[in-house]
Amino acid sequence: MKILESPDQILEMTARFQSGETKLGFVSAMGLLHEGHLALIRKAREMADSVLVMVYANPALVQDDETLLRLKEQRPADIELLASEGVDYACFPGRKELHPKDHRTHVRLDKLDQRFRGIETDQYLTGLATVYLQAMNLFRPNFVFVAQKNYLDFLILKRLIRDLDVRTEPVLSPTVRDENGLPYSSFHGLFGDAEKGVALKVCQALGAAREELMAGEKSAVRIIQRMQELMGREPLLHVRFVGILDPGNLEPLERVTRDALVYVVAHVGRFRFTDNFIFHVQQD
Amino acid sequence: MKILESPDQILEMTARFQSGETKLGFVSAMGLLHEGHLALIRKAREMADSVLVMVYANPALVQDDETLLRLKEQRPADIELLASEGVDYACFPGRKELHPKDHRTHVRLDKLDQRFRGIETDQYLTGLATVYLQAMNLFRPNFVFVAQKNYLDFLILKRLIRDLDVRTEPVLSPTVRDENGLPYSSFHGLFGDAEKGVALKVCQALGAAREELMAGEKSAVRIIQRMQELMGREPLLHVRFVGILDPGNLEPLERVTRDALVYVVAHVGRFRFTDNFIFHVQQD
To answer: Terminus-to-terminus CA distance in chain A, angstroms?
Structure first.
């Protein structure tokens, strides 16, 4: 595995993939690598000739010093894991490289931003879109892989790729879960038993929603209400959003008569936690 | 000259330049080609191995149907001119291609936007930055050439290239003027004598400002006042902005003790008209 440290090394790497005959797959991570990342890497190895992993703690996602320190401490283990998974290139840009102090150009997804607004902050949305675009411009991958768990990220990415004529194909990959059904996230390893317990309530609420949908329930409001009851009131769990949305444009659905994204964003302790599933409706 | 009409043709073209050994130069025009464009093309031929010209009426710049019609009528003459100048590739994207109805992702230059705000509309700034980025992503040129006349465009471009990690070098090229000193613009050929007369007043005011600066005047407010007097009140001339700015960040200067961008934006009849010069101050 080659670790890309300078712009020259990046240029040299991308030159290899510019003919279009060999394909580069891209996976983004904030560090604290887990099974979910490994699944993306394996998918990337299947679809592309080489795999590049960028590990970057986007300031839109991570601000607290404690997490930044953990990310830094974990770096040697992350590198070892990437190498053992057959990753070809790894890049660990610093904040100064992608976000120097006078970095002031941002990508905004106007209408999508409005729909996300109840769900995520502007800073989150713009920060995510901007870093994705920077990475696409720097590395020029053929494919970029995102986990279903981060469906909103996927939608942001898909949209900016289309609207800004980026030459990359976004690929959605299934969520990977631990033996309890909890989706792996960068914070998974930082959760104690209490955090795992409340995070599982979110997954269980989603499971209940799926069952109701399969049993024929069509009313979004009834399903959401049931989910909220199941998640209950827990000091460690702050549910920020529960929605049943059109997976294409995130418009809220009143009745589930077509495909629906059932989506929860929460905070578990100080960590962001999100999970979702897409319910596919058979059209006659 | 090859006219690029499909995404496949664009991909095939860019593949030629991806090794980095041969360089592609990019010139953007809205049509109604003039001497200013030809100067950019000649500069591009000097610095690059091949030259691509994109002719596109950015909706942020052109809305009126009459101008759009003129642009369309002029197309065959534009093509002939480009071919005669040794342009290698020309591309005439339609609005549906770069701005389909649900195109909603935009590039914003946060702080620069604020400074521009007195000068240009948000729509202008965002529209320009977004189309530039789209063109950079589509064509992946090594160089992009902008005329000094459009210094603000150059600054927008330079900023987005740096902040979004675009791999293109922006190149500023001198303004080309007709025998009267009027800078060529896409509207130059549409000006009647009356329009030319009032546009010249803008150029003369800039000339007077240069003379005052050379004579040692340091007060921006006195120079601006003198310029406004010289431009006077003309029914055809709507001066929208007169400024003396730091050329690096567009902050207004009170005293010209370092390099200064002296800049006018006006409307001549229904056409946007801009001219400027940079005054270089010798530092001891």
So the answer is: 50
Neighbour tally for B26: CB within 10 Å: 29
> Using a CB-CB distance cutoff of 8 angstroms, which residues of chain B are in contact with residue A131?
none
Chain A contact present for B167, CB below 8 A? yes
Tell whether B213 is within 8 A of chain A (Cβ).
no
Antiparallel, parallel or unpaired: β A24-29 and B260-268: unpaired
CB B146 within 8 A of CB B170: yes
Report the residue of B123, B128, B164 to disrupt the A interface, i.e. the one with the largest count of A CBs within 10 Å: B164
The chain A residue lying nearest B17, using CA atoms, is: A18
Residue numbers in chain B where pLDDT is lower than 50: none
Reported as half-sphere exposure (CB side, CA atoms, 13 A), residue A4 has a value of 23
Looking at every residue in chain A, the average pLDDT score rounds to 93
Identify the pLDDT of residue B218: 97
- Min Cα distance B71 → chain A (Å) is 24
Domains of chain A: 2-173 (3.40.50.620), 191-277 (3.30.1300.10)
pLDDT at B67: 85
B141-180 pLDDT, tens digit per residue, is 999 999 999 999 999 999 999 999 999 999 999 999 999 9
